[in-house]
């Protein structure tokens, strides 16, 4: 029963931490975006507007819960919590330090990718159940985009698996700790794989510049159009948690996880790397413009898929020769 | 670490259950605290403020989505076969590399075919 | 009858699997059926995980729930099966044949169950720590089952070509 207690306590911690970080990353993002556009961002609630997320939640709590007339009520209500469960489910298998992990599965990498891949289903369901033309269009686009970028994502994640010879995320981090971080050596494999992984991960989480499914200038708010109150908030939470957890996965697979280079390894390194990558994604988000659907598909199938196949082949040669 | 391999899934299951409980509670908060003043206009679908266009949203979609889904499955299955290869790679050596080369080359031929046929262009 | 914890978990999962599978048939709308099928896949994956077939469990989610379901959804959206129209005659040729086939399968399963008797499992596979892991599956796949593995690539090639031929007849 120790596993049960461990899961319960770790689960409680991880859910709390993810929710807190998500809430304050909203504040951070708004502040950062404002600075990048020579604005101030939220300033009124609390010092420098830091309590703004709490005010937002309180506001959303008081909103009416609306289910559109011809919507499929069961699926409509089911989609937001399922989206969050998928995002948190990924976090359960990501080791933040040798001890801070719910379960370091020996099929860890595949588990993370599998649960991440399922995230498209609640998004599609939300779009379909709303019975809204804009929402359904957003849902279809989201699924087409996510599954396309799933291919380079899975292939890029294969590179660290080949280099480390293990599927256990903890073992991959340990390998980097014993040798080099994969972005440092062999950098000609590590850096391209890392870039492809981050790009594909952005696309899978449907974030700018890959947020065609939402595309507020043409689809109102995509799949979230008909959602109000806390259900709307859950979708946002799922997106942020997904990005945060994916940053953690990328840190573990490519940036050495909890290894601190010349310094003592520890949990703080993993947290630092994850947050650093997470903030970097905001930077990308507020710098680039949104791509068009056809550009997204072309980028994926014509450039990312062939180059990630080539990367995997090269990684194989590298391991046979050197490893 | 754990006594039996199946037990390593127990924490995951517990975390998932906890997430389900959290999601269920949070998504029901709005209907608990929010106002309840339904009216016919409010429960129609939102189409940027104008009257909803006639007809259902659930209409037929373009065949290009189907092509993307099928390509995705093919490559997904390919990568799924790559993973057990990757973890056995050191033991298999060049023999394993040649095996996988034949496997992957067949699929790259397919990708080239699909590309040349223009099925990868989203415009049409 | 008293169950051990793992038996209780198995029964719970088995019941959930059968229940969600029956929802697949009971749902009026194809999309609802598809979503019930996703739930079935998940419970099946949990059963696989309990049986120590780690690889199959994860692949069940990655390939079936993640990939095959997307194809199902897109095909449903392509054909727009949502409107089932007015109910036709209750007894049709398809229903008679389908019902007969289902009954035949049921009889075959019952006969198989009656012939089965619990043998004590020799050489319990679960005792080996490597059983069901990716290493063990891969070790067999790339040595003993090499030919079927390479044949799979041809099958996938046919699927790819087929998709293009079906969807792009005018190119």
Describe what this molecule looks like in 3D.
The complex is a heterotrimer of chains A (323), B (124) and C (171). Chain A has 323 residues and is an all-alpha fold. Helices cover 70% and strands 0% of the residues of chain A. Chain A has 2 domains: 62 residues, no CATH class; 253 residues, no CATH class. Chain A is built from 12 helices and no strands. In chain A, helix 1 crosses helix 10, helix 6 runs antiparallel to helix 8 and helix 8 packs antiparallel against helix 12. The model of chain A has no long low-confidence stretch (mean pLDDT 82). Chain B has one domain: NADH:ubiquinone/plastoquinone oxidoreductase, chain 3 (Methane Monooxygenase Hydroxylase, Chain G, domain 1). Helices cover 61% and strands 0% of the residues of chain B. Chain C folds into 2 domains: 82 residues, Four Helix Bundle (Hemerythrin (Met), subunit A) (Up-down Bundle); 42 residues. Helix content of chain C is 71%, strand content 0%. In chain C, helix 1 runs antiparallel to helix 2. The mean pLDDT of chain C is 80. Chains in contact: A-B, A-C, B-C. At the A-B interface, helix 1, helix 3, helix 6, helix 10 and helix 12 of A face helix 1, helix 2 and helix 3 of B.
């Amino acid at each position: 029963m120790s596993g049960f207690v461990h899961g319960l306590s770790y689960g409680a911690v991880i859910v709390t931490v993810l929710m807190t970080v998500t809430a304050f990353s909203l504040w951070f993002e708004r502040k950062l975006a404002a600075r990048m556009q020579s604005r101030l961002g939220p300033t009124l609630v609390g010092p420098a507007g830091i309590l703004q997320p709490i005010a937002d939640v309180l506001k959303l709590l008081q909103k009416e819960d609306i289910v559109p007339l011809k919507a499929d009520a069961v699926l409509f209500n089911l989609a937001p919590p399922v989206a969050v469960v998928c995002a948190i489910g990924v976090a359960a298998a990501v080791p933040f330090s040798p001890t801070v992990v719910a379960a370091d599965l020996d099929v860890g990498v595949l588990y993370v990718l599998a649960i991440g891949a399922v995230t498209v289903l609640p998004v599609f369901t939300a779009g379909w159940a709303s019975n809204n033309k804009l929402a359904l269009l957003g849902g279809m686009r989201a699924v087409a985009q996510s599954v396309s970028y799933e291919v380079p994502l899975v292939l890029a994640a294969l590179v660290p698996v080949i280099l480390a010879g293990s599927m256990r995320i903890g073992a991959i981090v340990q390998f980097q700790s014993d040798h080099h971080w994969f972005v440092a050596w062999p950098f000609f494999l590590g850096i391209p794989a890392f870039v492809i992984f981050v790009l594909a991960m952005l696309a899978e989480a449907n974030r700018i510049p890959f947020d065609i499914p939402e595309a507020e200038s043409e689809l109102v708010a995509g799949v979230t159009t008909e959602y109000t109150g806390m259900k709307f908030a859950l979708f946002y939470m799922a997106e942020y948690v997904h990005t945060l957890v994916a940053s953690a996965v990328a840190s573990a697979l490519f940036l050495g996880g909890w290894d601190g280079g010349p310094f003592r390894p520890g949990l703080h390194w993993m947290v630092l790397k994850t947050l650093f990558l997470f903030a970097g994604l905001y930077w990308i988000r507020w710098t680039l413009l949104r791509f068009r659907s056809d550009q997204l598909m072309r980028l994926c199938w014509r450039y990312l898929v062939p180059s990630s196949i080539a990367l995997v082949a090269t990684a194989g040669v590298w391991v046979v020769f050197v490893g | 670490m754990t006594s039996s391999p199946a037990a390593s899934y127990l924490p995951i299951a517990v975390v998932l259950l906890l997430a389900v409980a959290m999601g269920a509670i949070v998504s029901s908060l709005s209907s608990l605290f929010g106002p309840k003043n339904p009216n016919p206009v409010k429960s129609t679908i939102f189409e940027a403020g104008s009257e909803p266009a006639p007809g259902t949203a659930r209409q037929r979609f373009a065949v290009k989505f189907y092509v993307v889904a099928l390509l995705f499955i093919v490559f997904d299955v390919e990568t799924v076969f790559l993973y057990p290869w990757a973890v056995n790679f050191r033991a298999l050596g060049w023999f394993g590399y040649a095996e996988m080369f034949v496997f992957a080359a067949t699929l790259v031929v397919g990708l080239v075919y699909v590309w040349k046929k223009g099925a990868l262009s989203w415009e049409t | 009858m008293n169950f051990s914890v793992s038996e209780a978990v198995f029964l719970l999962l088995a019941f959930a699997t059968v229940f969600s599978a029956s929802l697949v048939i009971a749902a009026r709308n194809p999309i609802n059926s598809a979503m019930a099928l996703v739930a079935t896949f998940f419970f099946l994956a949990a059963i696989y995980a309990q049986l120590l077939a780690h690889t199959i469990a994860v692949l069940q989610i990655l390939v079936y729930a993640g990939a095959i379901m997307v194809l199902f959804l897109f095909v449903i959206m392509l054909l727009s099966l949502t409107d089932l129209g007015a109910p036709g005659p209750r007894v049709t040729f398809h229903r008679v044949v389908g019902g007969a086939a289902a009954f035949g399968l049921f009889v075959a399963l019952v006969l198989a169950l009656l012939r089965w008797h619990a043998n004590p499992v020799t050489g319990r596979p679960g005792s080996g720590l490597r059983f069901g892991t990716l290493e063990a599956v891969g070790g067999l796949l790339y040595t003993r089952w090499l030919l079927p593995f390479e044949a799979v690539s041809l099958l996938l090639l046919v699927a790819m070509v087929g998709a293009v031929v079906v969807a792009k007849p005018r190119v």
